């Protein structure tokens, strides 16, 4: 993609160490865990924060994030840029986002294929969009604008959805593939979202993954979901982030990492937040799978080189 | 629709999915938009209700997180019913949820079921000010001894620069006492709801403090925050409350970290 001048990346002296994030499992950062995390002492891992929670001027949120950022890689996850909306991006919000990127030098920056603001109302949910050539064009413009503003590529996250638009003429994977081609963005593959959407819309999660541009994935999300029923009494999964990762999602994750190698992987847990050791144990389970495949890739690489 | 618009390819002239999708998002009595369905023509009533529920419940949760003392006073069922009305009437306009709820205290004042608790809106106002102080810019407060170095004859013309987190609030009710009792984990005893209290909200470091302002203290601080020098602010405070204690008020405000700098009127 054009417009990402290298100069914009090396504008100043770093305030924080450049902790590498490759191959690590991490968790959402929750303020109530700060003392337990600091009490643990240094360990492998990373933390992801919702950008909007750190858009105040000062106070405890920035103090906590700075303390975490000193010791760990941080992933900055935007929740409400409304990249998937039909209206122009909010320039003020873009400016705030850029300021956060500059201030904390995150290892990863991501946003959602969704929208949450319409006209003057902020709905605080990740709302769906129809997949058409026209919306590809609009969303690509938004991604370009965001990447140019912050001076680096973003990872775009696949959504969990509950409804389909009659207007859609493209599959979600084709839509996402077209965005990658147009904008040069990377992808955040939320494996739980794949499982939730596949269940809700009656397709195979594995065939979705087969069509997904896995080579462009830079981060994985894992989370818990809840079960409800649709109007016909069939299972409807809700992307609730309120519990442990489900077994079928772990299996899909294992398959993805087997194909992609060890990617930074986040355990998302945003409500009914458990004590820190519970969240840490979920991340350790993800790390074990990453490490297993790291060894496999290493062995395979050696055998290949020797042959 | 004219033919040229159909062929223009401009999304805004064709199908505004956000307009269609949000039309019934905050209104549970309306049907889901025609534009959406489940797979293979399945119904979308319960499916669309997931979004509707996410929006309303998450915004009620946001108010509950920002107004914990108000919630504790009313109980969760009362609070959530009240918050649901407010969310539907006044949804947020900013994606920063810690900015949401500025209109909530006024809504509480108008809310019929809250009439038996006339102090409740002021408790919510104090909680809103607490949250603003929490997120305010960081700044080093003026040292308590700072005024001691100013010659006495210059004190009346001294202007104090307020800390970004400083806020004064006046109430006809004992708002500080009610707030403090309901923001702690301990049991809340019977509080006499009569008698006014004025509040000082500050955050000299990482912790937000809420204190009583003594008689005349609120008007004194209001005038100082508006940029008036000490002499004029003190005169306004004396005019309102004859028992206004200038030395004690200045000492209390400095000790609370309410200011960041002092300078003479007319100088920068």
Helix content of chain A: 40-55%
| Series of H and E elements of chain A | EHEHEHEEEHEEHEHHEEEHEH
| Side-by-side strand order of the widest sheet of chain A | 1-2-3-4-7-9-10-13
Percentage of residues in strands of chain A = 15-25%
- As residue ranges, the low-confidence spans of chain A are 1-11, 302-307
Q: Which strand order do you get reading across the main beta sheet of chain B? A: 3-4-5
**What is the CATH class designation of chain A?**
Alpha Beta
Q: Pairing-aware structural class of the strands and helices of chain B?
A: mainly alpha
How far apart the termini of chain B lie comes to 62 Å
Radius of gyration based on Cα positions of chain A:
19 Å
Distance between the termini of chain A: 37 Å
**Overall mean pLDDT score of chain A?**
93
Can you tell me about this structure?
The complex is a heterodimer of chains A (307) and B (268). Chain A has 307 residues and is of the alpha/beta class. Chain A has one domain: TIM Barrel, CATH 3.20.20.150. Chain A has an eight-stranded parallel β-barrel with strand order 1-2-3-4-7-9-10-13, surrounded by four helices. Chain B starts with a helix and ends with a strand. The N terminus of chain B is likely disordered. Chain B has two domains: 117 residues, no CATH class; 130 residues, no CATH class. Chain B is mostly helical. Chain B contains twelve helices and six strands. At the A-B interface, helix 2, strand 5, strand 6, helix 4 and strand 8 of A face helix 2, helix 3, strand 1, helix 4 and helix 8 of B. Strand 8 of chain A pairs antiparallel with strand 1 of chain B, so a sheet runs across the interface.
Describe the structure in brief:
Chain A has 307 residues and is an alpha/beta fold.
Please give a handful of descriptors for the protein shown.
heterodimer, A: 307 residues, alpha/beta, TIM Barrel, eight-stranded parallel barrel, two-stranded antiparallel ribbon, 9 helices, 13 strands, 19% strand, disordered N terminus, disordered C terminus, B: 268 residues, mainly alpha, 2 domains, three-stranded antiparallel beta sheet, two-stranded antiparallel sheet, 12 helices, 11% strand
